[in-house]
Structure formats: C-alpha cells, structure tokens
Design goal:
With about 120 residues, the chain is mostly beta strands. About 0% of the residues lie in helices and about 45% in strands. The chain is built from no helices and 10 strands. The protein has strands at about 5, 10, 20-25, 35-40, 45-50, 55-60, 65-70, 75-80, 90-95, 110-115. Strand 4 (about 35-40) and strand 5 form a beta hairpin. It is globular and about 40 Å long.
C-alpha cells in the first residue's frame, strides 16, 4: 500500500516562502514521475509541478519562476520550494504520482495546508 506524508505547510504573508516535503512509502519511488498538487477551497485538485524519474520538470504557468520541485530518491522524498507566495497559492498541497503519465494516482495523503494572508 502506497502512502504519502506531506508536511511543511503553514500561514505566511504574501511574498513569503515555504518548503514542502512529501515522504512516500510502499513503492519503489525512484521509478515514478511525481507531482505536487494543489486544491484551493471550492476547486478541483490541480497538478502544479511534476518531476520525472530522470529529473525532467514541468510547472503550470502561474508558479513558474517561483516554485521549484525536486526529489531525493534515496529518501523517497519529493520537495516543493515555494517562493514569492501569493494569496492565490492558498490551498491544500498533496503529492502523488504524475496524473498525466499514469492511468491512475495512488491513494492520497492528508495533504499540508498552505495559507497566504496578510
């Protein structure tokens, strides 16, 4: 059973930074393209950043230049460094395998809440 534990969220002011971490268990992590997803209140979960097993990276336009995704295969961990945070970045952040690459995602973790507010 694949499980994810996300952490690192919090309440920060606009312009601030956060670093999210996601530890995966129950899978050979290094073989899979992984992604960070965001679900804002009243919206569907969306993929905001993805990284392949080989390290190729993609971002949605709204986070390009501000967010950086990375992975540590030895630690089964994927990270999301978020800088210059804006109120529209508010939401619950989850990690999972890249939904564009695979037929389905694994069970979702509890996510980590990110709130950007002054």
């Amino acid at each position: 059973q694949v499980q994810f534990v996300e952490s690192g969220g919090g309440l920060v002011q606009p312009g601030g930074s956060l670093r999210l971490s996601c530890v995966a268990t129950g899978t050979i992590f290094r073989f899979y393209a992984m992604g960070w997803y965001r679900q804002a209140p009243g919206t569907q979960r969306e993929l905001v950043a993805a990284i392949t097993s080989g390290g190729s990276i993609n971002y949605i336009d709204s986070v390009k230049g501000r967010f950086t995704i990375s992975r540590d295969n030895a630690e089964n961990t994927v990270y999301l460094q978020m800088n210059s945070l804006q109120p529209e970045d508010t939401g619950v952040y989850y990690c999972n395998r890249d939904s564009r690459t695979y037929v389905s995602t694994w069970p979702w973790g509890q996510g980590t809440q990110v709130t950007i507010s002054s």
